[in-house]
Amino acid sequence: MAPHDPTPTPDEPGAADVSGASAPVDFEVDLTSQEVLRRAQVMEALGPDWDPVEVLLGEEAAYDLLYSGLDAQQQRLYDDLVAAGVLPARGDGRAAA
């Protein structure tokens, strides 16, 4: 399927003269003020009661629960994933009982 507006070849009428084309120009955008605003909005959305330490402790408890009660095959797979570096080592290197 042909494009609707094909690019004219240099010898066609209406073709742009590229011999006097300008050099590429650096283009920069400073997003510092937008990043500061975004961070302020995130902190406002989290609210004054947000406790990052409590959140991290909750995540650790969730991981302990996730990897608890594994049967022998699951434990072997868990150990293989830890040894391969896919999962981080936790505690003594064994999933919680």
Describe the structure.
With 97 residues, the protein is mainly α. The termini are far apart. The model has no long low-confidence stretch (mean pLDDT 82). 43% of the residues lie in helices and 0% in strands.
A few lines on this structure:
This protein is mainly α and 97 residues long. 43% of the residues lie in helices and 0% in strands.
Which structural traits does this protein have?
single chain, 97 residues
Structure classification: mainly alpha
The oligomerization state is single chain
- What is the share of helical residues? 40-55%
State the distance separating the first and last CA atoms. Answer: 64 Å
- Low-pLDDT sequence parts: none
Task: State the order of secondary-structure elements, H for helix, E for strand.
Answer: HHH
* Rg calc: 29 Å
Shape: elongated
**Main beta-sheet strand count, sense and barrel state:** none
Please work out how many helical segments DSSP would assign. Answer: 3
What is the mean predicted local confidence, pLDDT? 82
> In percent terms, what proportion of residues is strand?
under 5%
Number of strands: 0
List the helices and strands and how they pair.
Elements: H1 32-46, H2 52-66, H3 72-83
